[in-house]
């Protein structure tokens, strides 16, 4: 049985973050959760309150603490990454950043993309962009994550890090995004579902599986980016079919659009990630089609 570790989780005290914390505590790790005080962590975790954007606040909250692993669930910009890197260098033996499939927003390949498609060492960093502006940040989500990864990659061996590029997450009765509910509402009423004229599939991961993956990643020693996605891809039609199967009536009616806003899981380009690096490192992913009915039922409050 392994020794319990000292692990710091920054933010992420809901959805798959809270599941990660529960797994670490159950494994006997000593977990410290740092956030702005908006929510208390699960029983058994230490709670630190600080604004992760404020370097002085972060240093004061951490005091002299050191950690075996840091899991950063809320690093969205290169400014936040720069602060984390300065404060945590020398305090942790491993840093795990939750990144996103959105780092590949400019890739458009029929084949699932590998981590090498976006090399953080080649990504330019601009700390002067208006990263504190919420509208700018929302519209530059993928860019913020790319540049944050670049800040950590530039540190070299003195800051051992991995960035977990997470596929679109589904499942759980606490899915706060409203994306599956969007489809359920339209299937019930027969309202049209906007999709691109050429609608591409994407990779997904179950909320429990990404929590498992992050917990697993804390115990590994690989560095650099890694894709986290279940095996297989789904189209909007397959998602809506799974939603319709859990509703008493209604059907999916699709409306093709050439430009403009489309429904949440509809894509103008391919959004598939290659998960072979993580698989070779030893993580066993599930198949998206096997867990999809369960994920939809959980979120819509239906029996599996």
Automatic annotation (TrEMBL):
<dbReference type="Pfam" id="PF01370">
    <property type="entry name" value="Epimerase"/>
</dbReference>
<protein>
    <submittedName>
        <fullName>Reductase</fullName>
    </submittedName>
</protein>
<dbReference type="InterPro" id="IPR036291">
    <property type="entry name" value="NAD(P)-bd_dom_sf"/>
</dbReference>
<dbReference type="InterPro" id="IPR001509">
    <property type="entry name" value="Epimerase_deHydtase"/>
</dbReference>
<feature type="domain" description="NAD-dependent epimerase/dehydratase">
    <location>
        <begin position="7"/>
        <end position="221"/>
    </location>
</feature>
<dbReference type="InterPro" id="IPR050177">
    <property type="entry name" value="Lipid_A_modif_metabolic_enz"/>
</dbReference>
């Amino acid at each position: 049985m392994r020794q319990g570790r000292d692990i710091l989780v920054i933010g992420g005290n809901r959805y798959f973050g809270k599941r990660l914390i529960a797994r670490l505590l159950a494994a006997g790790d000593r977990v410290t959760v740092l956030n702005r005080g908006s929510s208390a962590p699960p029983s058994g975790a230490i709670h630190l309150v600080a604004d992760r954007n404020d370097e002085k606040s972060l240093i004061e909250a951490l005091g002299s603490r050191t950690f075996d692993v840091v899991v950063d669930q809320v690093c969205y910009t290169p400014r936040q990454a720069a602060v984390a890197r300065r404060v945590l260098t020398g305090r942790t033996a491993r840093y795990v950043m939750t990144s996103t499939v959105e780092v590949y927003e400019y890739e458009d390949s029929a084949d699932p993309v590998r981590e090498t498609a976006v090399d953080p060492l080649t990504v330019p960093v601009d700390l002067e962009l208006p990263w504190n502006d919420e509208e700018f940040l929302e519209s530059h989500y993928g860019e913020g994550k790319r540049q944050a990864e670049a800040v950590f990659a530039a540190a070299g061996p003195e800051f051992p890090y991995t960035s977990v590029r997470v596929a679109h997450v589904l499942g759980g009765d606490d899915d706060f995004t409203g994306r599956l509910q969007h489809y359920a509402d339209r299937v019930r009423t027969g309202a049209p579902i906007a999709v691109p004229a050429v609608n591409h599939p994407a990779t997904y991961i179950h909320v429990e599986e990404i929590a498992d993956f992050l917990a697993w990643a804390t115990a590994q020693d690989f560095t650099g980016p890694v894709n986290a996605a279940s095996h297989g891809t789904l189209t909007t039609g397959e998602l809506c079919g799974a939603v319709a199967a859990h509703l008493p009536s209604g059907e999916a009616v699709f409306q093709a659009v050439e430009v403009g806003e489309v429904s949440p899981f509809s894509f103008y380009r391919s959004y598939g990630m290659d998960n072979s690096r993580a698989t070779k490192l030893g993580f066993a992913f599930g198949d998206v089609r096997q867990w999809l009915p369960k994920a939809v039922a959980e979120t819509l409050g239906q029996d599996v």
